[in-house]
Known about the structure:
By secondary structure, this protein is α/β, with parallel strands linked by helices. The chain is built from 16 helices and 27 strands. It folds into three domains: about 5-105 and about 180-460, Alpha-Beta Barrel (TIM Barrel); about 110-170, Alpha-Beta Complex (Oligo-1,6-glucosidase, domain 2), CATH 3.90.400.10; about 475-554, Golgi alpha-mannosidase II (Immunoglobulin-like). The strands form eight sheets. The protein has an eight-stranded parallel beta barrel. It has a five-stranded antiparallel beta sheet with strand order 20-21-22-27-24. The radius of gyration is 24 Å and the shape is globular. The two termini are about 20 Å apart. Calcium ion (CA) binds near residues 23, 24, 25, 29 and 31.
Amino acid sequence: MPDDLPWWASTVIYQVYPRSFADSNGDGIGDLPGIIGHLDHLVDLGVETLWVSPFFDSPQHDVGYDVRNFRDVAPEYGTLDDAQALIDEAHGKGLKVMFDLVLNHTSEDHPWFVESRSSRDNPKADWYVWADGYRGRGGQPKPPNNWRSELQLPRAWQWSEEREQWYLATFLWFQPDLNWRNPELRAEMFDMIRMWLGRGVDGFRLDIFGSIMHDEALRDNDPKPTFMNGMPRLQTPSRTVNTDENFAVAGDLRAVCDEFEGDDRVLIGEVFGPPSTLRRYIEDQSHPGLHLVFLFEFLSAPYSAKRYRTLIEGFEHEFPAPLVPTYVVENHDRARSLSRMGGDLARARVMAALLCTLRGVPTLYMGQEIGMENTYIPLADANDPIPSVVARRLPEWLNKKLPERLNRDEVRTPMQWTAEPGAGFTDPGVPPWLPIHENHRTRNVATERDDPGSLLNWYRDLLALRKATPALQVGSLDLATDVPDDAIRFERTLDGTTVAVVANLGDRSLVVPATNAVLGGRTAAALLVSDPGVTIADHLVDLPPNTAAVISIT
Ligand code: TEU
Ligand code: CA
């Protein structure tokens, strides 16, 4: 790694969903000691930064994204000492650690909200977003404007009998939005962030960060339906998402991080919108903001070379070096990538090759490396509250056909470590908090570790090559446009070293030149191939259907 670049510019992120990763005490619930006990898997896989979804004190109605106390750990996950041990042990193994900050809202059970809701003039009355609205015919309360929640169907306002006022809830009804215009709230949040930075955490993933600041005058959103990151929206969130004031909060947060050894801590935003808008979180009006933003397009895009080429081109255009794109193909909210790709492991290998060699920070979601798939769970059995608000009457046959999972439980089932009952996640015989996928008998870390042809070992090889090859970590990217429709080819170059990546995403074999440039005496040699059928002769790469190769050009 070139010394002048910060660590996060070339890191590889691995997301752990703590409730589903590893249960250390046999209660069927993953916990912090469970994560600590499995850090070697991350090291062995070759990822460099651990991102842990929220483990803070919470009633768990949204599995921790409804925080009751930002400064303490949920008892079923462990203690503050366990959180400290997680940071320290990860550091001891050379891993960086990112926690997950939910700055937009708290749980309705947070003592701040309980107090805020109790009257219009208590000390925390202004810590949340309250509005009067108006009275309709017959005197029934009406919300102040047309804002919809981020789930689209429900409105963004909830009625409080105590205050006879509305409170804003951008996501689920039990997650009231904090009022970031209140200076005391701001100061408290920044202090809480300092507490975790002081404990040594290397940075934060920022939950629905684009929704923190909404229009102060509460003007209506544009009622025009739209799409954002491939997802339909019933209105255009011009007054509620990615507002100018929101970009300013990014700068304020950055200043707090920079109190701690400058560029050493990282902020990565969960933000939605076109790449040109998201870029403003990183550099708006010349002041520095977030370091990275997730680019979610690959979560919705069909498996298609043409579509992927367009996305890569767009990201390269909007995030030129020294900016760094952040690629995501899976997370705890969206369908498993293998399920989206029809369960085809050859395609998963192509996806892995692209993810690990594109310019930017790759993000993996636990289980992606072994090819975990959606675990079907009927809507009626959902632990996730989303189906109860958006799909109350959706027939099950239709739910099964949807490309995206409404019940997010399906992508949150326990990590598959072994073939045994309990999958090595929990003790045999203990009911896990969500069902374990029956394919764990063959698809698990232990089995795949021993199989040289497994997806797990493919990821290990790719990440090891990436770590050993600065051109793959931080080299420039040159995407070829003159390739067959089903092909992707790009070159990564740093200080005269060139590595080419070629992939065939189609169902017919293709022959693709290894490089754009006239080779002039240079040779092309395979560094890694996703399938033994891939061959290189005379600079021409022969790619069977759904294969990829990483090639050194010397
Ligand atoms: O998600 C925000 C979000 O808008 C989406 O990821 C959403 O969950 C998805 O599109 C629905 O299909 C974040 C967290 O990632 C999510 O787990 C939380 O539930 C949510 O914020 C509220 O904190
Ligand atoms: Ca446990």
